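Key idea: predict the complex, not the pieces.
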Amino acid sequence: MIYVVVAVAVVIVVVIGVILSKGGSRQEPGVVSFRKHIDALSPEARREVMDRVRPAKRDDEEPKG
Amino acid sequence: MARDLAIDLGTANTLVYMKGKGIVLNEPSVIALNRQTGEVLATGREAWQMIGRTPGYIVAVRPLRGGAITDFEITERMIRLLLQRVGVSRFTRPKVVICVPSAITEVERRAVTDAARRAGAADAQLIEQPMAAAIGADLPIDEPIGNMVIDIGGGTSETAVISLGGIVALEAVRVGSFDIDASIQAYVRREHGIAIGERTAEEVKVAIGSASETEDESQAEVRGRDLMTGLPKTVVLTPEEIRFAIDDVVSSIIASVVRCLAKAPPELAQDFLVRGMYLVGGGGLLRGLAQRIEKETQVPVRMSNMPLEAVVMGAGHCIEHYDALKGMFMGARR
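Result:
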């Protein structure tokens, strides 16, 4: 009997937790997408493209020099 | 499966960035056609070498003028050939981000996206050139500080103030380095009575053109056709003459920079004095231009590390982070 009560209590806590977490993120979609947008423009995020193009450009220039 | 692409469809040059690979194509935006059959004979560098040197049945044209499509059908064919050359087929349809001047009209916008879709793109999105340039020039546009970028292309010059990932102020004029070449052509015709081609005018600009006085100035010999006799003739041009010839165009570019500065909110304007403005685009390579803008605006001007590639690098970054940055595309904000 006690196991059933504990199991029901755990399920209720999990359900409440899920509802609260979903409710929380639903309130701030703008914050999340703006953060994602800004993070994608950070120097760290841009490093990959810069590193990919700069060595190729240097290779192109070497024969001219 | 084709890799997604970013295209800087410039009036002068077209650059293509492939997701995960880098810049895979960098060529003049020129196409050569058979006038009688309409067949494409050459594109890019090969077609550029034909400008002004073709027999009657061949026409070598730049389908973009002033950053806008002047011939929709030819542009579509050029984009299709570009996509084919980087491995796009009818079975592999990539997403494409195309850089366009911020001042293009709704009709021009639709013309570019339609041309890309018909040429084989699954989805075509547009991004403003100054925004792409600021990303590619590695400016800290993710921070709440004023970043100013001046992009001088073949047909347009755009100045933008960017902060927190968005454009705060923008000013664009349909004047660029091709107008500088045209001014040189017109000057030589008017003052020396000889006709020169657009490629010769460009060579003169590169050799002795400047926006303000510089060290190590020299003269240039130019060959053209005498308008009176029709015979070949050589004249010597001085840097002062070229400065005089191109002054109207340079002044109009600087006036648009000043208008953009005037539009910027005061909180951001103070940042420019410390951080300066960044020059990108082929037109920014004109000797003495940075110094002249600096003198007339009293704001430091810095040259971007890769002025010719900055725009396509910025668009390339958008294709690498497509989902996070799709809010930046032109259609997304309307």
